[in-house]
């Protein structure tokens, strides 16, 4: 095994900033960038084929367009390398982007040919672009090679630009999907006006997660402990909520809609093979919900509670990774 490959494997097992301390030359950096584009082409091609098999032509078309865009990115990289006289390093193997701080499991929604939508496909693409941006930023900050830092800065700007374009498309897709799918309720962070609203939502989320955990325990002591911990958190939140004003009418109505929709959702996504995927996706959506509140609330108490709930959601995702492995 080459020295670079050994360091690359070591970095995957560490909590360092991905590969940032291992990129020594411009050839290494540009070769990693090429492999990242090729991985995107492979993955999006695979997803497009999966969407076709599931008769999800709308999502398939979007993934096929992403393939076309990534092929063009690869061509431009090769053109740039040729112009700058940078050779590809044959020792750099295919790259799978990983971020040690952010779960990527929610992308399972984009993978599912029966559940994916253009919005979810675009969310998946944005996530990948953001991981790439963070990687190049880390390289720029940590490399001792001036040329590597220069090229990493350019690559980071490129990824940031790609992500910005995809985010704009994602917003349009979100509103279009929301208008065409109003019958499927979602927990809305904009309805959280005070701590009572947030606690009511947290209790609802935890009860649903607990019910999903009970399905997939599979004699896993980590999950059994997580169920116990979740149950304790529900009790704490219920006791805290009982000493505060009742939650507002809007969030109560939203939660009632979700409860009413649970049987239909469980039936639609009731495939036993998807039970773990659904639990993981629910944990990640809860993280996104709390994180959105942290970003938007003007109430300090709500923000602090939401931050704590965000941390708890990440801890749960970590337990799932430990119990079942990273299914990315």
Automatic annotation (TrEMBL):
Residues 1-13 have a biased composition (Basic and acidic residues). Gene3D superfamilies: 1.20.1260.10. One of its GO terms (molecular function) is metal ion binding. It comes from the Bacteria. Residues 29-94, 121-239 form the Rubrerythrin diiron-binding domain. CDD domains: Ferritin_like_AB. Residues 1-22 are annotated as: Disordered. This is Rubrerythrin diiron-binding domain-containing protein.
